[in-house]
Predict the 3D structure of the following.
Amino acid sequence: MKYLLRLICIFLFFHSVLFACEPGFLQIEEKCYFQKDIQFLQALINNSQYDKSGPPKNLNPTKLGFQIWEKGRLIEFCSSPLTNTECRMEYVLSGQLPKEIGNVTQLQKLSLESNKYNGVIPKEIGLLKKLTKLTLSSNKLGGNIPSEIGELELLEHLAVNSNSFAGALPTEIKKLKNLKWVYLASNFLSGNIPSSFGDKKGITYLNLSNNQFAGIIPPELGNLSNLQYLNLSQNKLTGVVPPELGNLNLYRLNLEFNQLTGEIPSELGNLINLVELDLESNKLTGTIPISLGKMSKLIELDLHNNQISGIFPSTVGGWVSLEKLNVTNNQMDGELPNELGELNNLKTFNISFNKFEGSIPENLLQINELEVFYVHSNQLSGQISDDFCEIHNSIRILIYGNLFCPPYPECIKYIGKQSCKD
């Protein structure tokens, strides 16, 4: 009996030695976790107790959100009530981001989107030297983006959109040479767009829309050879559209709702992979460059609410993929080119509130895909054939304020005022 007890004691001793955690680590369910990492997770739980939708107060910290550990250190953490990934949780995290965020020094990915965090980003964020992904989108965070963000030199993915951040971007952001994805939209950020963005050659996505950025669009952005998506819309940007943007390999370019002046640079015609070009609601002048006809993959072209003049270039026939064309409320004139009728994928055609004249090309009226056809408030004349209704019984059409002559097709419900010219 004594021998058996001795064996049990020896076994328990070696078991405790074998499974003992190193100093600074805690044993939870026979696994070792770095104590300060656990303190961060516990702080997230504690700070969320003031919202009834928060996680259970007695939740094991290692069960919070989605976690990946390596050698007892937390390297990935995410939790969101609105995602279709493994990060989706039934509870919402809230309160302030804890200063204990500086504890998780081995963390590589942190995603807390669509929660209810308020307050500021703690300056301790700068201690996460190994962080490559930071997503804090769709919270209620505010204040300035801290200068300590510049310490995250391995950061590739930065998404803090849909919060209430204000002020200028910290100059330290120039230190983030590895950025690939930058999503800062829908905040109250102001000041100039840093020209240092042009040094981050790996960026593929840059979205600064719906802020209060002012000044010019940095021509240095033309150095971003990997950039595919550029959205600077809904800011207070002035100056011209930099011709250097024509050096890029963009798929989408959105500069709408700014205060840009000057002409559309012909260099944009080099963007042969572009599928969306939005320049609406600026103060652009001049004509539509002939070179834009090279954009054979273009699906959407929106130039409305500018001061663009002149005629449609005959090269519009190159827009073979175009589905939406909107040049309403400009100063364009001349006759509509027959090449517009070659755009067989066209669904929306809006040239209203210009000075176009002459008749509408017959082949344009016969495009089967048309759903919206707005040509009102121009000086168009001639007749619209009854065949139009056979092709388009459910089309949305407005023709008022022109010089069309009767008879008018029955499917056009509102003719409006027409000053017919025989």
Q: What stands out?
A: The chain has a mean pLDDT of 94.
